[in-house]
Amino acid sequence: MFISKIIKFLFGFQRIGKDESDALKGDVDAMYRVGDKYYRGLDGSIDYNKAWKWFYMAANKGHVKALFKIGSMFYIGDGVLVNYAESRRYLTKAYKQGYIPAIHGIALMTLKGEGVEKDYEKAKKYFHIAADYGFSPSQHMLGLMYKEDEYNPDSLDLALDYLSKAAFQGYSLAQYDIGRIYYDWKDYGEALNWLTLAAKQGHSEALYLLGRMYRKGIGVKKDTLKAKKYLELAFERGSAFAYAELRLIENYEE
Predict the structure, then answer these.
(1) Residues 6+ positions from 239 with CB-CB distance below 8 Å
(2) With 107 labelled, which of 26, 97, 143, 206 sits at a CA distance of 20 to 30 A?
(3) CA-wise closest residue to 242 among 253, 230, 251, 225
(4) Helix axis angle, 120-132 relative to 100-112, nearest 10°?
């Protein structure tokens, strides 16, 4: 009853649906669902302030996804001021309940020195924990970290191993990075395969690189129409390089 009165005070007595009704009765899962509705704008409008309040109440009851959401919102600044210390505190609570995305967030903060002393090796250990559970963003990050490790003779093999694990799960960032590696190695057949997979998910740099390959006939038969299609899609997603390629086509190749 006390919780119900607090929620009514915070949110008013507006017409409410079933989830809101259940949340007023103390249903923690319903609190999370209502917060998620406001966060994602599922009823037509995003409201981070209301989302944060519902997530906060669910988090204080130990709801693991709500703990993660509050940590993420403190990190990004959605509905609250950015606060790395609070972000890490909530992410740690979520991780202690076994929520793997939270350890990925902690790893990123440790890698960047946000709310904690910057520590590359500790960040890598955190990424390994999440990667071992099959979390593709952590596998991708490990791939990038090993790719940049010039002192480990096995680093490139490890990089490709972790990038492949993420890529085979459909993670477009990893698909692009593998494609880029093969492109730089001039293995254009493999590059084309991976870049195409990333492009199908709207990855702008993959779209741009495919457009460039078809414009110049790099590893593929030259095809200006295909080049324009990929470059236009890349430009729509904000690629300035794609715009430059399109201008070259318009001025010199049509």
Answers:
(1) 204, 205, 207, 208, 231
(2) 206
(3) 230
(4) 160
